[in-house]
């Protein structure tokens, strides 16, 4: 069985230990020869990298592991897979993404609304450069991208590299939801055959078939309406995530046709959600005081003690496992079904062909083969068309350096709506992002 050479871009992420643990767990199904972690932040990556050395010594001694901030060392001709999870600007800029809009009276969230707009404008530059760096060395490596906001990034990469068929944008939130459904029904998430449509962080499950062909969605809907909804790993989740999942009950009550992605709360109930958000302590602060602190402290302890056997840094990590099982399906032409982000081209017949939609697809060594969705109802079509217009205008604003299109994008976003408020927020975000964004004229 071939062993693969893998590059992780964004090695200093707090999600990386879960990915490293998943690599150990799946060494028999996705064997790796060489693993390199790359990050521009040496100090953050060093903490994870030293943890990895101990973990691999105990659980995967055959792997050749290193971490670096040197592009020449990281990007090589023999890479098979690149796993990308960058955060341009780090948590310092995430905090501004969340707090600036909130202090101006609109939703402040990492990937949704003005915060997602700001993050997307920063991510585009580095993701384009990342693809160029990889392709300067190899045309064959698969680039599996987690970098957010995945919807905006996907549009930008499709425009810049329309003929590159080895870039696949993915998101672990549908996978997290499948795991949560599985816990409620006492089923393995991989046993579901899901039907899903939408945009990234803006979609719905329409059916969830079990191995016998029974649609479990009606049963799940009744369970959620009666008992509420929690993530599969709720014991390890921060408070804001529990509140996010709890909102699914109201969304299902108001719109019972389908089961929604949790992020839709920001677009369907912006006033209600806004009242619950604290402009002085956002999710960025919660992560830094919670998951990030726990992960880094445990990684340091493992490096100091020389053993990862009692490490509790990883629990039910969909993020780490999902990207690996997608890679396995590509590597071995397995054709397994996953929810991924693809150019529409008729998949959803009454949406624009150039939209980057999130749908179920069979993943093969020749790329994704999506399952047709057909026409979607007017309500969902209207929501998606407005959101896609916002995403497309965001990319155009970046590519053209257009203030007018940036203003149009934010005015269209359902978390903003007011053109006057959009201008106020945009001007504040421009000031905060001077070193990251192109000049908007």
TrEMBL record:
Domain of life where this protein originates: Bacteria
Pfam families attached to this UniProt entry: Glyco_hydro_4, Glyco_hydro_4C
Site (Increases basicity of active site Tyr): 110
Annotated Glycosyl hydrolase family 4 C-terminal domain residues: 196-416
Active site: 172, 263
Keywords assigned: Cobalt, Glycosidase, Hydrolase, Iron, Manganese, Metal-binding, NAD, Nickel
Chain positions recorded as substrate binding sites: 94, 148, 283
Note describing how the cofactor binds: Binds 1 NAD(+) per subunit.
Cofactor field: NAD(+)
Binding of Mn(2+), residues: 171, 201
Molecular function terms from GO: hydrolase activity, hydrolyzing O-glycosyl compounds; metal ion binding; oxidoreductase activity, acting on the CH-OH group of donors, NAD or NADP as acceptor
GO biological processes: carbohydrate metabolic process
Similarity comment: Belongs to the glycosyl hydrolase 4 family.
Protein name per Swiss-Prot or TrEMBL: 6-phospho-alpha-glucosidase
Species: Aeribacillus pallidus
């Amino acid at each position: 069985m071939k062993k693969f050479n893998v590059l992780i871009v964004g090695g200093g992420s707090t999600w990386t230990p879960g990915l490293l643990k998943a690599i150990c767990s799946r060494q028999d199904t996705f064997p790796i020869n060489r693993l390199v972690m790359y990050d521009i932040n040496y100090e953050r990556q060093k903490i994870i990298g030293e943890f990895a050395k101990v973990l691999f010594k105990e659980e995967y001694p055959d792997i050749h592991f290193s971490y670096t901030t040197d592009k020449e060392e990281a990007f090589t001709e023999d890479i098979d897979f690149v796993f990308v999870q960058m955060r341009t600007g780090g948590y310092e800029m995430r905090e501004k993404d969340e707090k600036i809009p909130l202090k101006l009276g609109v939703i402040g969230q990492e990937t949704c609304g003005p915060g997602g707009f700001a993050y997307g404008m920063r991510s585009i530059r580095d993701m384009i450069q990342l693809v160029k760096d990889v392709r300067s060395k190899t045309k064959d490596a698969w680039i599996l991208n987690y970098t957010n906001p995945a919807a905006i990034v996907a549009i930008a990469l499709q425009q810049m590299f329309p003929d590159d068929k080895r870039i696949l944008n993915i998101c672990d939130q549908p996978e997290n939801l499948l795991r949560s459904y599985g816990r409620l029904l006492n089923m393995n998430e991989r046993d579901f055959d899901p039907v899903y449509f939408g945009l990234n962080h803006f979609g719905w499950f329409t059916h969830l078939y079990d191995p016998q062909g029974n649609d479990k969605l009606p049963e799940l809907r009744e369970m959620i309406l009666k008992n509420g909804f929690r993530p599969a790993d709720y014991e390890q989740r921060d408070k804001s995530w529990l509140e996010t999942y709890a909102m699914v009950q109201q969304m299902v009550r108001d719109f019972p046709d389908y089961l929604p992605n949790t992020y839709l709360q920001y677009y369907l109930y912006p006033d209600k959600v806004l009242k619950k958000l604290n402009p002085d302590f956002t999710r960025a602060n919660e992560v830094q005081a919670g998951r990030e602190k726990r992960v880094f402290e445990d990684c340091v302890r493992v490096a100091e003690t020389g053993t990862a056997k009692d490490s509790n840094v990883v629990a039910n990590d969909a993020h780490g496992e999902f990207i690996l099982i997608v890679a396995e399906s590509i590597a071995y032409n397995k054709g397994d079904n996953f929810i991924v982000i693809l150019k529409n081209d008729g998949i959803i017949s009454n949406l624009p062909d150039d939209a980057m939609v999130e749908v179920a697809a069979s993943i093969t060594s020749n790329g994704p083969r999506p399952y047709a969705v057909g026409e979607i109802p007017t309500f969902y079509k209207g929501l998606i068309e407005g959101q896609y217009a916002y995403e497309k205008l965001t990319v155009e604003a970046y590519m053209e350096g257009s203030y007018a299109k940036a203003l149009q994008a934010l005015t269209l976003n359902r978390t903003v709506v007011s053109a006057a408020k959009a201008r106020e927020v945009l001007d504040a975000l421009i000031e905060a992002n001077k070193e990251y964004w192109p000049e908007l004229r």
